Structures are given as C-alpha cells and as structure tokens.
Q: What sequence folds into this?
C-alpha cells in the first residue's frame, strides 16, 4: 500500500519501528503533492528542504534510540495562518505576500518539537474569512471529490490536502466552522477544541475571542494524536487554559471499541430543522440510528437562542476583525503601495489593494458595529446574545453528554455559486457557529455520502468546555461502526 | 444615495471606509452599500432578543488574573525586527511623511 | 486671521474663573513592558528592545505584567482611590504609525483605580484638595523621527523613521476631576499638584518620573467662565507640557489667551493644543476632518483583572510614608526651618541626608556634608547630587572617622575626593592615601616645639595670655605635618608647651 494511504498512526508506527524511514514518508507525500496539487491547489507553499531535513533528523534519532513523540516523522500540512520562521505566512492575503515571520507560532513550535514533518502551508480564505477558499488571494482550492466544487473554508486547503492524500495530518483554525465545515465537505475529520485549549500565539487573528486552532486528519484517532501534540497551556497566550489536556487518544481508543452505552446524545432541535439538503438530512438521521445502535440514548434538547447565533456572530466577528486587521498598514511589514504619498494615503491605498472584498466588507461592518452610536444596539447586544447561547449550551449539557447536528447544511457546492452572495455563504456555518460563541468543543466526522450527489456529509459532535474526551469517544465509536459497514470515505483518484 | 431600507447609506459606508483606512473605489462603494445593507438587515435580529438584564460575554472562557512575572524574555534583534519592513534606515522603520498630529 | 490679544493676567482673574484639569502619564520603571518581556531601558539602540508582541506582528499576543498591575494599584492607593474589584482592558482604535497594532491597549470604562484625591499644599501652606477621577493602565507608543523639512518637526518632513523600543512600555494615566475655584492661583495649583504627584510616585519607587526624559508627561485642561456666572466654559487640552515650570506657564498662558478670545466676542474651540517650551505659548493642533471615534471594545486577547481584597491590602501595606509627611517629620527631627527644608528639597538632598542619618551620622553633620562640600562637587561635575558616585553609607563613615578623631575636616574632604574618584571605600582611601591624623603626641610635641622656637615673638604673646595668637603656631604645625595633625590637640599642646 502506498505510504500516502496510511493513517498517521500507522505511518508513525512504521517509522518508529524503522520499517519505513521518515525521509521516505516525507518524500512520498512531497511526490504526491507534486503529482496532484496542480489541480487541487491545497498548498500555498511547500517547504521541501525543511521537510526532508526534519525527516532526516527523525531518522537519525530513531536510529540512535532517542525517545520520540508518537507522531515523529509523520508529515503534516499547516494552515497558512500560523507563523513559521522558515516559510512565508500569507493568511491567503496579498497584503502579506512573501512575508517571512521572524518567529514560530506556539503550535508550529510544538509540531517541530514532536518531530512532525511540516510539508508546507495550506490555502485558506483570506484571513480565515469564508467558507469556500474562494476568498484566497491566491486562487481557490478544489475539492478532491469533485474539482469543480469548493473544499469548504476557511481551512479548505488543509482539508483538501487530507482528502487528496497529500498529507495524513493537517492543522486548521476554526472561528465559526473553518475546521469542521471543510472536514464535512471533504469527508475528513476536523476538531475545534475548547477555546483556550490550543495556544493562539502565532495564529494570525481573525476574531480573537472565537479563533481556535485544531487538528485535522482522516481518522478520529489521528486527530486525537495530533490534538495531544498541540494542546496545552501556553504562558504566551493569556486566554490559554492552565489545565491538563483531556486524554483524547485514550478516549478515541476506547470509543473505537464501539460501546456508547450509558451516554446521552442530545439532538439540538434548533439545528435539526429546515435548510438542510435532503441527503444531509438523511445521513444525519442514519447517524442518530447508528448512535442508538451503539448504545447511546438519543434525546432532544432545545437551545432557543441558537437562532440568533449567526446574527451575533456576524457582529462580533467583524468587530474584532476590524481591529485585528488594522495592523496591516504598510508601515512595518507586508505590502506597501503608492510610495511617495503620505503615510495616511499609503495605508489606505495599501489596504485597498491588499485586502479582498470579503475582508473589506467585514472590516467596514465591524467598524460600523463598534461605532459609538451603534455599539449598544449591535456589538453590546451581540455579547448579551452570546451569554444566552452559553446558557443554552449549559442547559443542554445538563441533559446530554454530547450534542449532535449535521456539520453543514449542504455538501460541497460548485465553485463560484455563492462567492458574490455573502449572506448565502454565511449560512454554511449555521450549525457550527454556536460552539465558537460559547467556547465549547466541536468536531466533524464523516457520516457518509449524500444520496443525490455522492458527496461527503459530516456529523457534528459538540461537548462542553474541556469535554473533548467524551467527544472523541463518540466520534471514534461512530467512525468505527460506520467504516465497518460502509468503508472509509475515499475521494476518487484525482485525475493526473 | 440612501439605501432603500435605510439601514446603511452609501455615504455612511464611505465614512466607515475612511475610518478603516480603505481607499475603496466608487464601484466598491455601490456594491458594499447594497451588501452591507442586506447583512445589517439580517444581523439586526440580535435586537429582537430580550436581554436587558443579561450580562455581556466578551470572553468565551471565564479566566481572570492571568499575569506574567516582570522578567526579561529574549526578543528580536534589530535585523529580525526590520526583516519584513518595506523600508528601513538607521535601524528604524522608514515610513512616508505623516500628516496627522501626534496622538 | 490674527489671534486676539492676550489679556493681562490680573485682568483675567478679575473677570474670569478658571477650571483646571490635569492628565498625567507616568511611565513605569518595570523591568519589562506592559504586555511582553522586552526591556524598557531608556536610550537603547533603535528597535533592539522589541519582540513580535510590541511590534504588533501578526499572530502575537499580549500577557499582562504583574508588577505593572501592582504599581498601578499602589499608585491608586497612594492617591486614596478605590481599586476596582473587576475590570478589563479595552482597545482604543485609531491609526497612527507609531502604534504598531493601530489600536492602543488601554482601559476605558473599567479603570483599575477610581475616586481618589490628593491634598496639595501650596507654598504659603494653603491646602487644596484635588479630586482624582481615575488612574488606569495603558501602553506607550513608539517614537518617530521626522526627517527633512524644518528641524525634525512633523510638518514639512519628507519621511519619518520609527523606533518601537518605547512601544508597549507601561503607562499609568492619572486624571483629576475638574478643579474649580482656584482663581488666580490656578497656575500655582497645577504646578503644586504635578510636583506633589511626582514626589509621591517617586516615593513608591514605581517610576523615574523624569519629565525631561518623558517618563512623566502632563496634559493641561483649562476653561474659563465669566466670574460669578457659574457656567462652565469650553475647555482646551494642552499637550506636551514637559516640565514643572511649563505646567505653570501653560495654565497662565491659556488663561490669558482664552480671555482674549472671549473678550473679542469669540468662542473657545474644544481642541488639542501644543505647548511651545521656547515661547511659553500654546498653538492649536491640526484640526481633524472628522471627530475621532475610537470604537472602544473589551480586549479579547486579555482576560479580566480581578484584584482580591487580600492582594490589595498586601499592596497597601507596602506604601511608604507620604513624602510630604516624611518631610515634615524630618524637618522636626532635624530642627530646621521651612526655608532650609525647601533648599534641601530643591537640592534633592532629603533622601541622601536621611539615609546618611540612618547609617549612623548626626543629622547636622550629614546635612552639612551634602549641602556644602558634596553639593559643590556635584555642581562642578554638572550632575545631580544623587548621581555623585558616593553613597550615604560612605558619607556616614567619613563623618564617623572625623568624630573618632581619626580624620580632621581637611583630611575628610580628601577621603571623600578619593571615594568620588573611585578609589574605593573611605577606609581604603585612608589607607592608600595615608591620611590618618597624626595622633602620636611625641611627634606633635617635636613639631610644636620647633614652631615655637621658630616664632619666639608669637610664643611670648601666647605666654602673655593672647591665646588666639596660637593660630599661627597651629598653622605652622599643620603645614609641617602636611595637614595630618588634629588641630584641637595641637592647640592643647601649644598651651601646654609655652606654659612649661
């Protein structure tokens, strides 16, 4: 079997036992990238030399008997929103074209320390704003299941890299669904950890109070292994939780044994209604039956304020964005246009040229929502709705150990379909946004293919803050059961 | 050209763009005004929620008192600091002439 | 448009009532910045005390300096403020090249210290209570250097150079309530307040409060209302007032200027003005096209600060005696006049003398050393008294050596010179320069006899009872012993020898 088809856990084991070298593993994935990425366009930058150098170092350490982490030598695709001292970091934006940060993000540093081979940086909607990667300044990523369709977003590059077997592991960030929705539409696994679970230091901010980095993989166990590498307290991030990382690997292994008896799975009434594509709806119903078959008790819960989540989100997010993105002003780094004019003119001209339309829209919207005359009605009120959504979650988690919903309302839609209709694009995140507002954990696992279009559908599992273990357990049980019946979701071979 | 629903006008968008240092084009102003009007119409729904006595949430996880000891931590060298600068001179970032008053 | 004529100060105060407000920024002298671990040393090479956080690099995050919070709380407590039990930082959004993130992390509607006061004593002893509205934490900006055009000024410059070493240095902004009813003493009150605030903060050890280096900066708010009208006038905010004297001058000038505008039937524009040190005048800043909307919102990258009562009380316990109370106590202990005290304060000698006394020296001797010989030395070197390379402990040791008779005053000055020259501790200088008083009577008697023999006429005068004539013999003996004799003992021996 080709090395690129192995799971991260399998590959790691072969590297540790010297059956396969880390260099071979890296090279196989670099070859695969060379083979298919022209069509998929998952990567914005491939760091061949650094990847091979890391792999060679791991091989030396394995040979020397050095104790290494459980993913040492496994290749990974890093979303281009984490700073890397040895590679450019663009966030999918022209304004940062060619920028080489002088420092590594904490996530980057932890990946390196774990011996993971970073293959390169993946494509994304500009500054993580979007649900399709069509808002990347460097062109969209194509869904390996159907190259004419979107891979989801903003982390479409990371998800597509997994689905196209360009990497067994990837890192994403999730502000309103940017890990989970791409996972759903590419048939992969994506996890948004509890807010504060993974350091944001070096994660170029979209919306600070919502952003969370997380693991992406093709299996729940691989995601869990990666989760434990990147999670944990970081003194450089004030919002990082100083508590032990949940034992998600153990939970995933227990879950894979397929017994969920004693667990209560809550179906959120407000996330189960209209607006879902029939195949998505059908896949979700089948998933509920499967969870019951595994021994879980399925109960209905109500989260009455979820219907206002999107409205609150599209006030809070743009507000924070308008402030976070103010620093891109042509003075200290990044693009500068219109040399010779005043600093003020250069700032305005550079930001006009460097940002894409979606970013500009959100900056203007956020500037509006924070203006003194509107603050209370918009930003202030959105923050109160946020409190109510957290309370809804608390009440729901009193009745259920995890909550479930479809991850996204539709399967992958055609590129270009919604790019000029912001509101239609925003609806993709309807089911994923509430977890970001409340800071709780969420994941998407493949739940099969939609009957009408044969494209992947995702099941969203949500858990309370720091309740990742139960979430992984349910995800792994579901995955094991579904895979046993239907087989793993494998994208059709990308044309060559 | 005030918008039909009156939520946000083209002039207002132009003002906001200036505040946000975006030299948007006339065409963009037209597009954005229309789109923002629709978006605002949608997000204004937050106002329907009776939340008068509800405390606002600014942070997703309720942490308090996170501090760092007053200890030096290695930073960047001057060369690293200036490595991304569009222009630098004498160890400093060179920027176009500044019109505004110092704050 | 020519500006209306200034109104004579006496005329201003006869017809108008000023209302004063002061905003003082104090840079804390913490080891590191407000939100990152970079050094805060003044005068370092440009952009060498920076990191991703204070440069505002994408992805960087702030973490609050605990010591800066403690300093803020201690300043608040010293100003009789309440400490907010819970509060958040906020972002103040505006674009300016010296601000790396294009927002300043500050405190907005949740300042850490609120509702305090300070009783300010004027020169004649009158006490004015100045209300403190708030004291809050924020971060400083970088520094711009304007190149081209005239004399480094921002206007007409070709371009600017930015150094972010200062960006992120912790600042405490202390805002007074409006101070009404100061009348003609408004300039004096302003100066006295800033002076007393400076002394207070210095005594806390949380800042250098050097106005000349910008570690303390003052903005003056001033408005006039027609006397007796009770109507508050429109205020101006004058920035860049960077010395105590300037505080007084700025208030005075604004009073005269505003009165001129009002007398000419004009209106005061609410605006930011800049103080011109050279001329002692203020000038209007560039008028902004649109009113600034800072779009404050709670800083999502920092979590709330909730000082516990026990923490606040622990910090209250570290507050030193108020400098003015301490001064009154020392004045009583040292038995000096108001005028003498003021001279000591102006010379910056209070702490030095007090520390010298604490090291065992009598107050009179300590004072005399610092205000006389050491003051001359500081003057000659062009440095502050406190900058002299000698410690109060060393001065106390010299005083002790004199008291023990091991040194006379002349030798003591040589020992001090040695210490100032870096030759080590007083005892080491005594040793290395061989500066002990000759206390061997045998050697002294020989010298006295020799001097008496050389000047028989003087010896006769002494014998005749003209004891003061002994001075000439003392001088001769001192010369012979190269100053190392104890003059008192020499005098005793002379009397003894002429009588024998």
A:
């Amino acid at each position: 079997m080709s090395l690129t088809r192995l799971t991260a856990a399998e590959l790691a084991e072969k590297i540790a036992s010297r059956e396969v070298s880390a260099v071979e593993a890296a090279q196989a994935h670099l070859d695969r990238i060379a083979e298919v990425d022209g069509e998929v366009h998952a990567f914005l930058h491939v760091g061949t030399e650094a990847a091979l150098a890391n792999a060679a170092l791991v091989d030396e350490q394995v040979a020397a008997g050095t104790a290494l982490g459980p993913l040492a030598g496994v290749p990974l695709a890093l979303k281009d929103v984490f700073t890397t001292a040895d590679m450019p970091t663009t966030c999918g934006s022209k304004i940062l074209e060619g920028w080489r940060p002088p420092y590594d993000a904490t996530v980057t540093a932890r990946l390196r320390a774990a011996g993971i081979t970073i293959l390169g940086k993946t494509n994304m909607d500009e500054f993580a704003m979007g649900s399709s990667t069509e808002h990347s300044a460097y062109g969209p990523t194509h869904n390996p299941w159907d190259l004419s369709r979107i891979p989801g977003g903003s982390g479409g590059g990371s998800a597509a890299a997994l689905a196209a077997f360009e990497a067994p592991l990837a890192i994403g960030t999730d502000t309103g669904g940017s890990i989970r929705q791409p996972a759903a539409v590419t048939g992969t696994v994506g996890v948004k950890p509890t807010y504060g679970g993974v350091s944001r230091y070096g994660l170029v901010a979209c919306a600070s109070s919502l952003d969370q980095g997380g693991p992406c993989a093709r299996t729940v166990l691989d995601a869990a292994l990666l989760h434990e590498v990147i999670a944990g307290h970081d003194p450089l991030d004030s919002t990082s939780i100083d508590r032990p990382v949940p034992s998600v690997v153990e939970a995933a292994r227990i879950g894979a044994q397929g017994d969920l008896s004693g667990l209560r799975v809550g179906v959120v009434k407000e996330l189960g209604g209209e607006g879902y594509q029939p195949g998505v709806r059908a896949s979700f119903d089948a998933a509920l039956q499967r969870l019951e078959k595994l021994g879980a008790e399925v109960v209905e819960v109500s989260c009455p304020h979820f219907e206002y989540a999107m409205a609150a989100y599209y006030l809070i997010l743009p507000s924070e964005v308008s402030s976070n993105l103010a620093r891109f002003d042509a003075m200290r780094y990044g693009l500068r246009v219109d040399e010779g004019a005043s600093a003020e003119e250069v700032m305005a001209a550079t930001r006009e040229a460097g940002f894409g339309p979606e970013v500009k829209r959100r900056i203007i919207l956020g500037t509006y929502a924070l203006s003194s005359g509107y603050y209370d009605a918009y930003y202030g009120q959105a923050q109160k709705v946020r409190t109510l959504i957290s309370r809804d979650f608390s009440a729901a988690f009193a009745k259920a150990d995890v909550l479930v919903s479809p991850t996204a309302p539709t399967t992958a839609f055609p590129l270009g379909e919604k790019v000029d209709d912001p509101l239609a694009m925003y609806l993709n995140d309807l089911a994923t946004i509430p977890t970001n507002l409340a800071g709780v954990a969420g994941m998407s696992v493949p739940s099969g293919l939609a009957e009408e279009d044969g494209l992947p559908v995702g099941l969203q599992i949500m858990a309370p803050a720091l309740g990742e273990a139960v979430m992984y357990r349910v995800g792994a049980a579901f995955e094991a059961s579904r895979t046993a019946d239907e087989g793993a979701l494998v994208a059709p071979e990308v044309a060559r | 050209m005030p918008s039909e629903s009156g939520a946000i006008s083209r002039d207002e968008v132009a003002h906001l763009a200036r505040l946000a240092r975006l030299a948007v084009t006339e065409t963009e102003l037209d597009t954005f005004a229309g789109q923002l009007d629709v978006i605002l119409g949608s997000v204004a729904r937050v106002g329907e929620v009776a939340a008068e006595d509800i405390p606002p949430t600014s942070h997703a996880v309720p942490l308090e008192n996170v501090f760092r000891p007053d200890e030096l931590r290695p930073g960047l060298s001057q060369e690293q600091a200036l490595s991304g600068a569009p222009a630098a001179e004498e160890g400093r970032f060179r920027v176009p002439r500044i019109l505004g008053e110092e704050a | 448009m020519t500006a209306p004529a200034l109104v004579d100060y006496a005329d201003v105060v006869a017809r108008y009532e000023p209302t004063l407000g002061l905003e003082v920024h104090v840079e804390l002298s913490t080891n590191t910045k407000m939100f990152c671990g970079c050094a805060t040393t003044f005068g370092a090479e440009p952009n060498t005390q920076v990191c991703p956080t204070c440069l505002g690099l994408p992805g960087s995050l702030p973490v609050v300096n605990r010591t800066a919070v403690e300093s803020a709380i201690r300043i608040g407590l010293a100003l009789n403020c309440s400490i907010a039990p819970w509060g958040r930082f906020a972002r103040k959004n505006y674009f300016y090249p010296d601000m790396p993130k294009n927002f300043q992390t500050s405190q907005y509607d949740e300042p850490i210290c609120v509702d305090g006061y300070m009783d300010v004593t004027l020169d004649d002893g009158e006490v004015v209570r100045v209300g403190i509205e708030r004291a809050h934490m924020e971060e400083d900006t970088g520094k711009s250097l304007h190149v081209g055009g005239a004399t480094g000024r921002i206007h007409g410059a070709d371009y600017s150079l930015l150094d972010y070493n200062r960006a992120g240095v912790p600042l405490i902004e202390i805002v007074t309530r409006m101070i009404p009813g100061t009348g003609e003493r408004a300039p004096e009150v302003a100066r006295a307040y800033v002076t007393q605030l400076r002394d207070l903060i210095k005594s806390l050890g949380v800042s250098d409060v050097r106005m000349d280096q910008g570690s303390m900066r003052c903005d003056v708010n001033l408005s006039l209302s027609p006397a007796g009208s009770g109507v508050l006038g429109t205020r101006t905010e004058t920035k860049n007032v960077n010395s105590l004297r300037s505080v007084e001058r700025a208030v005075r000038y604004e009073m005269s200027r505003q009165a001129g505008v009002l007398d000419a039937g004009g209106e005061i524009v609410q605006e930011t003005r800049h103080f011109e040190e050279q001329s002692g005048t203020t000038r209007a800043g560039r008028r902004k096209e649109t009113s600034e909307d800072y779009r404050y919102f709670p800083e999502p990258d920092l979590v709330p600060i909730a000082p516990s009562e026990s923490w606040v009380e622990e910090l209250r316990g570290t507050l030193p005696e108020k400098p003015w109370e301490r001064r009154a106590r020392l004045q009583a202990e040292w038995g000096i006049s108001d005028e003498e005290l003021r001279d000591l304060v102006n010379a910056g000698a209070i702490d030095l003398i007090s520390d010298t006394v604490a090291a065992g020296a009598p107050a009179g001797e300590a004072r005399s050393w610092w205000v006389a010989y050491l003051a001359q030395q500081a003057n000659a070197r062009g440095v502050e008294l406190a900058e002299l390379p000698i410690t109060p402990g060393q001065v106390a040791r010299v005083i002790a050596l004199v008291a023990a008779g091991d040194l006379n005053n002349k030798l003591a000055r040589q020992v001090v010179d040695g210490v100032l020259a870096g030759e080590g501790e007083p005892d080491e200088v005594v040793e290395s320069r061989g500066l002990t008083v000759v206390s061997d009577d045998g050697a002294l008697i020989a010298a006295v006899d020799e001097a008496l023999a050389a000047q028989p006429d003087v010896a006769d005068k002494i014998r005749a009872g003209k004891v003061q004539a002994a001075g000439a013999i003392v001088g001769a003996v001192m010369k012979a012993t190269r100053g190392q004799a104890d003059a008192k003992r020499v005098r005793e021996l002379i009397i003894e020898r002429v009588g024998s």
